[in-house]
Design brief:
A hairpin with a 5-residue loop joins strand 11 and strand 12. This protein has 248 residues and is mainly beta. It has one domain: Porin (Beta Barrel), CATH 2.40.160.40. The two termini are 17 Å apart. The strands form two sheets. A twelve-stranded antiparallel beta barrel has the order 2-5-6-7-8-9-10-11-12-13-14-15. The chain is globular, with a radius of gyration of 17 Å. 2% of the residues lie in helices and 56% in strands.
Amino acid sequence: MLTSVRSLLAATILTSTAVFAAPAMAQDDDGIGVEVSANVAIVSDYKFRGVSLSDSEIAIQGGVDVGLPSGFYVGTWASSLDETTVGYGSTELDLYGGWAGEFGNVSTDIGVIAYIYPDAGPGDFDYVEAYGSLGLAVGPAEATLGVAYAPERDSLGGTDNFYVYTDLGVGIPGTPVTVTGHLGYTDGFLTFTQDSTAWDYSIGAEAGIPGTPLSVGVAFIGVEGDGLLDPGGTFTEDSVVLTLSASF
């Protein structure tokens, strides 16, 4: 299901973990409808909406999702960062909760996510986004349209931030391979451009390794905008990202 909050968290990494799949909430059912799953990943670069937050270096990531009755869920996800990246420190911690449902071949997901940087440098860096998405599955293909909005606060330079994106995934029949595409648009503080707008995009593929909880992925990821503040630099250069992930 492409409407996963994970698409929002890493909106251009291929599998961070399983970016284009819903949180795997069917691993451990306690008999009363509570289901728990976990995921871990190593990525060659942590790119958030096309911008590297690990300075083009390897990042370690992982999270836990708890599915609650009636479609509600809560979860947490974390990633290592480059300590010098815009003062965020060495760790990102995301806390989120929401509701997801399916109506035939249409899926929905709404919720709130908090981005927390526990060892950031001086200043205010934490912020909160509300998100929502609609997904449509037709045969081996799934498409999603989603939005996220972070209200005005000091950590966003006294402004707000709006993000809209679309994801597409097509499974290749008879294989474990899914081809993926992503396009997103940011208007607000969370860009590396002078006019505070940017497009991010990716195209890639991922595949589960049969008989194991492992997946591998590769994606070409880029970001474009007027007046990139780091043109050709490690934060905004187009690059190929490799991922090895596991879900339990």
